[in-house]
Amino acid sequence: MNGTRIAAVGHYQPAKVLTNEDLAGMVDTSHEWITSRVGIKTRHIAGPDEPVDELAAHAAAKALAAAGLTPGDIDLVLVATSTAIDRSPNMAARVAARLGIPSPAAMDVNVVCAGFTHALATADHAVRAGAATRALVIGADKMSEVTDWTDRTTCVLVGDGAGAAVVEAADEPGIGPVLWGSVPEMGHAVRIEGTPPRFAQEGQSVYRWATTQLPPIARKACEKAGLTPADLAGVVLHQANLRIIEPLAEKIGAVNAVVARDVIQSGNTSAASIPLAFSKLVEQGAVRTGDPVLLFGFGGNLSYAGQVVRCP
Question: Where is this region: ACP-binding (predicted)?
Fold first, then answer.
């Protein structure tokens, strides 16, 4: 085979919805303050009995069903997450157990908000190298569990959820070459650390980096796929903040593309944000089978990874 493709996608969000008005009753904020600064209106929040692997398994099961596959067809499970509280068993093994996948390689990928695009590239490489036949690639995070709900600068941002993709071999490459990297000396700008772990960030530093340094990198990811930004039918950026997504998308130059804005309804779901938003675009018919879509993750560690994929 000459490449790999995304055979199907799926997503899942918890039932509980937290509105800006709800948050205004918890901290000193308002609907107007939140929407003017980050563009978010609602977010989904998992309960104490909904762990990360449950969110991930729901999304993965939907992707499997959409691909017409069974758990036995999968031999690699990759879960991108930064909110796995326990060190072992990892999320990938827990998801495999929930779904009944018999004997997969099971690995977690912690690159925070860029985790899914890193994991997708890893699956692409593994399948093309012959190390796996079909992979489940999942982005899942329970940000509510690592959030200080008294800090209005961060608690207004976060949401919980999961998105998944099935990756398999293909005659024609449907997953373009990855462009990835990081700025480790600025890794402190986005953090989940401490005991208990808590999410914190230097918002202005992240905003400047994302809107000034990332556009040429995203354009180069298109170039590696043999396309120009104008050729794209869709752009799915990490759903960090609408005030980052909109200027970044504009500077990339994808003038004919649908730009995912799921952050408005879902908040920042970290590693889940790209597959969650992409799955929704596919489900809504906003992008069609075979359309080229740029997936571009960025955030924690000041890491980034992007590739152009063809819609399932």
Answer: 239-243
